[in-house]
Each structure stands twice: as structure tokens, then as C-alpha cells.
């Protein structure tokens, strides 16, 4: 029985699954049928059939270092749509573009039962649609003597965009480096407009490479592990107050497998949710790659502006035209960095919230790959309608311009070979916090490598937990002492300041006076909220729901939210 290349009805997947042969990770069924014979299953497998969730890494039995190259098998690469309305044609790509893996290659070494890639940052490819991340994986024994199953987390990232599809790559290898065919599977994503299952098999080529410098790689991993926040299941929040309704914190109105990650940081402890996919729990939950989307506006634009201001107090008073010559001297005269940061430039087409950002014209900005095209849109697309500083209009293109201006300002003061993202945000903020190598990646333009700034970052759940705790320590200077300058928005009880949203929690928890909670918000259903100095909350989803505020009723049972 052969499955067509593009099954668009979810009921068919369910029907076929009842006929699918059953396998167990590391046993003769999976090894023989999939990895040795190259026969992919008719539908994606439960992850417990690929990676045994109870398996400990096999220590000291396999020592390999080298490079893996994957050759795509066009005839045995499969894609099924989860939502029939999501058409590849609507996105402007052929089916084949998305169905096939890119030409993936990565160097790795094994140590103590772990598969450790040399590079864990975002890897570019020549594929029309996909770039990728490779994470730290596992070595498992098989029932066949001298052969081991290597499984690594593999994440596909939409080229030039922030969508992520998390999955696994697995293959057999012996001590001589002879590798089997590989199997890959993706049944989870954070991508509102493209939800699919991808799976298949292909040829694996391994070449021994003994010159890998493992020490700096292991040192970075050690730092990440040593700085992990203490982790406990979300259910243990009930130990503080048994009246807390966890379903309200878990945002149960969301579709379960649309929730990539959810966490609460309370008193310095990370209370985590599950990494649920359409085929069971994701086996590498702590390494699941999460897109920032517009969280980047707060993290990148907001935090770097605030940190640079400690060195350059008048930073936000800088004139845009002094740093971005692409913007008209006459039209942009009087617009300062602070106006880009607060989206009050006076340039807009519509005063209605979301109309400009949601316009089909704005796709020109988001699809542009070069700085030349992005800055041309950002400087020239919207007409001048009011003086700067008077009206909040949400534009990601404003944040892009701020990123350009800040980068040029930084290079002017610290060296033209410097990059604001790499040399300041990563080196001065992310690395001291112990954020993962994943967080050291960002989307950039193809010509001059200008970071997108308003979107395009990537994190793990632990990264977001650490960041939320860090931001909670900055809010006094970053937000509260400037709150009188926050901008009203058309959204009820919500203001905007320095690339952060502010929600008046008094409407939910009956405070005697306004109590503004700083939060970040991202496309598709992403948020990170600084609920109180001792409690922070985040979730990453693609349900297109942004109504997390009911959870405040439960958090108020754990910590006092209302302002004194």
C-alpha cells in the first residue's frame, strides 16, 4: 500500500494508523523495517517507537567523530497537511520545495552515550525553503551486536522566516563508521500558517574526521547545564496553594498539540509543561527550538537599547537620519531612536490597530531577503501623517530600522567589524545568563547580514525561563520609572513602552489601582509576562490565541500581583 505524496485529509491519517505496523525503538522491527531495509511507515510513528523515553545514554561503548551527510530519497519523503486550508500553493512554493529535507551535513562526536554536534546554531542550506538546527542526541544499543542507533533532535526552520518544525533524525552505525539509511520525522511546529507532518528515509554517508576540537564545545555545554534553572513539573505549583486551577494556567482552550512549550518561573524555579506533539511527547523537550517572533522586539530592541543607554545616556535622543541615510532627510527629520522603539514615528497608512501590519503590502517587507529591500520599504512605504511621538501604530518595520540604527551606532563607537547582535546582545547578555547555543542565532539579511531585530530569534524553554527572570530584575528601570511615558493603544487595558506591552492586571484581580504587568507578545500565540518580581510566565504556541490574562487569577493565589 502506497501513501500519496500529499494527503490533505486528517481522517485518512487516522484511518491508516490502525493498519500501521507496530515497532519499538532499538528492536528488530524498527531497525530492520526502517533503518536497514529503508521502508518508511505509512504514517508518522509515536516518538516512543523511535526513541525509548526511558533509555539512558550508552556510556563509553561507541567512540566516533566525523561528518554525516544525508542524501534525500525523493520517492520516500512524505508530507501530510494537518489543515486542508493550508495550501503550499498559497505560500508561493511548489509541493516539492517543502516535502524534501535540505542537503544536511554536520560534524559530531560521541561521548558518554551522547551525540554531540560541533555546531548547534542555525545552519543555512541551499534549499529553497528550509534551514536547520541539529541538537545533542543519544546513542542506544540495538539487538544487533556491534551496531548502535544514533538519534538527534533536528529542527527545520523556514528560510528567511521564524517558523520552526521540531523533529528527530535517527540512523544505525557501527564502530567502523558504516551507517544505515536514516529516518526522519516532524510532527510538531510553531507555525500558524503551515502545519504538516513530514517523515521519510534516505541514504546516510559517514566520513571519519579526527580533528574536531571538542573542548570548547564541551565547555559551552557545561555552562548551559550548570546555569539551568531548577526544574519541576507544573503540577508542583499546587504545593504552594492547592486552590490553584492548573487548567487555567495551561490555557486549556488552546489545542493541546498547538502548544509547543509553557512554563512558570516561581521563586527562581522553572515549572515546566509537556512538549506534546501529534505523535506523543517530544523526546528532546529541553532542546525544542522555539521561535521568538515579536518577542524579539522586547528582547533585542528593548534590552539592547536599555543596556546601551547605561553607556550612552542620550542614545534614544539620536536622530534617525544621522544613522540611516536611506530614510529621507526631509520626511524623517525630527524622528528619533525613541520613536522607533515606541512605534510613534508618525508614519502610517491606517490608525486602526493591526491594519498596517496585517496588510498584504507588508508581505513585501517580510519576504524581502536583502537589507536594501527591507530598508526601502521601512523608510518609504508609509506616508507621514502626524508629528513623531504622538500616536502608537504597530510596525515591525520600525523595529527593523531601530536595529539598523543601533547597529551603526554601535559600530561607530566600538569598531566597524562589530555586530550589535553577536558582540553585544549575545556576548554581554545571553552568554552571561547561560543561554543555549540556539539563542546565539538570528535571522539576518542576505546582503549585509543585518539582524531582523523585530523577529527572528530562537530559544529553548530554559532560555525563556532565564530571560524572564533577568527581565524581571530590569523592569524597575526599564519600565516602571518611565511608565508615565507609555503609549495608549486601541487595545483595552494595554499600553506600550520601550518595545514592551503593559497590561493593567487590575481588571482581572480587582486591584485598588492600576497595576501594569510588562509582557512580550509574538505572532501566532506567544507571550512572556513579568507577573511579579517572583513569578514569570511564558508560552509558545500557534493556536493564534493571545488571551493568557485569565491565568493571572491563578497566579494571584501564588503571589501578590497588585501594586502597593
From TrEMBL:
InterPro entries: Beta-lactam-related, Beta-lactam/transpept-like
Signal peptide stretch: 1-25
SUPFAM superfamilies for this protein: beta-lactamase/transpeptidase-like (SSF56601)
Keywords: Signal
Domain of life: Bacteria
UniProt protein name: Beta-lactamase-related domain-containing protein
Alphabetical list of Pfam families matching this protein: Beta-lactamase (PF00144)
Residue ranges of every copy of the Beta-lactamase-related domain listed in the record: 279-471
Amino acid at each position: 500500500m502506497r501513501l500519496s505524496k500529499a494527503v490533505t485529509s486528517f481522517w485518512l491519517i487516522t484511518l491508516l494508523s490502525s493498519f500501521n505496523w507496530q515497532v519499538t525503538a532499538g528492536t528488530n522491527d524498527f531497525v530492520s523495517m526502517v533503518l536497514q531495509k529503508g521502508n518508511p511507515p505509512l504514517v508518522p510513528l509515536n516518538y516512543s517507537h523511535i526513541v525509548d523515553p526511558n533509555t539512558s545514554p550508552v556510556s563509553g561503548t561507541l567512540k566516533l567523530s566525523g561528518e554525516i551527510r544525508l542524501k534525500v530519497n525523493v520517492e520516500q519523503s512524505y508530507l501530510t497537511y494537518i489543515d486542508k486550508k493550508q495550501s503550499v500553493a498559497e505560500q508561493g512554493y511548489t509541493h516539492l520545495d517543502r516535502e524534501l529535507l535540505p542537503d544536511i551535513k554536520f560534524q559530531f562526536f560521541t561521548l558518554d552515550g551522547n551525540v554531540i554536534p560541533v555546531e548547534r546554531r542555525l545552519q543555512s542550506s541551499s534549499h529553497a525553503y528550509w534551514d536547520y538546527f541539529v541538537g545533542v542526541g543519544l546513542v542506544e544499543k540495538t539487538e544487533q551486536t556491534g551496531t548502535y542507533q544514533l538519534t538527534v533532535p533536528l529542527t527545520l526552520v523556514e528560510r528567511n522566516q521564524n517558523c520552526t518544525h521540531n523533529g528527530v533524525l535517527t540512523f544505525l552505525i557501527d564502530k567502523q563508521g558504516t551507517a544505515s539509511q536514516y529516518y526522519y520525522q516532524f510532527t510538531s511546529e510553531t507555525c500558524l500558517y503551515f502545519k504538516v507532518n513530514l517523515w521519510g528515509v534516505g541514504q546516510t554517508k559517514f566520513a571519519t574526521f579526527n580533528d574536531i576540537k571538542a573542548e570548547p564545545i564541551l565547555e559551552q555545554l557545561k555552562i548551559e547545564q550548570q546555569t539551568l534553572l531548577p526544574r519541576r513539573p507544573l503540577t508542583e505549583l499546587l504545593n504552594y496553594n492547592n486552590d490553584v486551577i492548573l487548567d487555567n494556567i495551561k490555557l486549556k482552550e488552546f489545542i493541546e498539540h498547538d502548544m509547543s512549550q509553557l512554563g512558570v518561573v516561581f521563586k527562581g524555579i522553572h515549572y515546566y509543561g509537556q512538549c506534546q506533539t501529534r505523535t506523543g511527547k517530544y523526546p528532546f523537550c529541553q532542546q525544542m527550538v522555539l521561535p521568538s517572533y515579536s518577542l524579539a522586539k522586547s528582547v533585542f530592541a528593548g534590552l539592547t537599547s536599555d543596556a546601551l543607554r547605561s553607556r550612552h545616556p542620550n542614545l534614544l535622543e539620536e536622530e534617525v537620519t544621522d544613522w540611516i541615510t536611506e530614510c529621507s532627510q526631509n520626511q524623517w527629520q525630527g524622528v528619533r531612536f525613541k520613536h522607533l522603539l515606541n512605534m510613534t514615528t508618525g508614519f502610517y497608512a491606517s490608525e486602526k490597530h493591526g491594519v498596517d501590519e496585517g496588510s498584504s503590502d507588508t508581505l513585501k517587507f517580510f519576504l524581502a531577503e536583502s537589507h536594501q529591500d527591507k530598508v526601502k520599504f521601512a523608510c518609504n512605504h508609509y506616508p507621514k501623517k502626524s508629528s513623531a511621538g504622538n500616536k502608537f501604530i504597530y510596525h515591525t518595520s520600525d523595529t527593523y530600522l531601530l536595529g539598523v540604527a543601533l547597529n551603526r551606532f554601535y559600530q561607530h563607537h566600538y569598531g566597524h567589524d562589530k555586530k550589535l547582535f553577536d558582540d553585544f546582545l549575545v556576548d554581554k547578555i545571553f552568554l552571561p545568563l547561560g543561554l543555549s547555543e540556539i539563542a546565539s542565532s538570528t535571522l539576518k539579511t542576505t546582503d549585509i547580514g543585518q539582524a531582523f531585530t523585530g523577529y527572528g530569534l530562537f530559544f529553548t524553554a530554559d532560555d525563556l525561563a532565564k530571560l524572564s527572570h533577568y527581565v524581571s530584575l530590569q523592569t524597575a528601570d526599564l519600565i516602571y520609572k518611565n511608565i508615565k511615558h507609555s503609549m495608549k493603544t486601541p487595545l483595552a487595558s494595554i499600553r506600550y513602552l520601550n518595545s514592551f506591552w503593559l497590561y493593567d492586571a487590575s481588571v482581572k484581580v480587582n486591584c485598588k489601582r492600576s497595576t501594569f504587568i510588562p509582557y512580550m507578545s509574538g505572532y501566532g500565540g506567544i507571550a512572556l509576562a513579568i507577573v511579579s518580581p517572583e513569578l514569570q510566565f511564558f508560552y509558545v504556541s500557534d493556536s493564534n490565541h493571545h488571551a493568557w490574562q485569565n491565568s493571572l487569577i491563578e497566579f494571584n493565589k501564588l503571589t501578590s500581583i497588585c501594586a502597593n
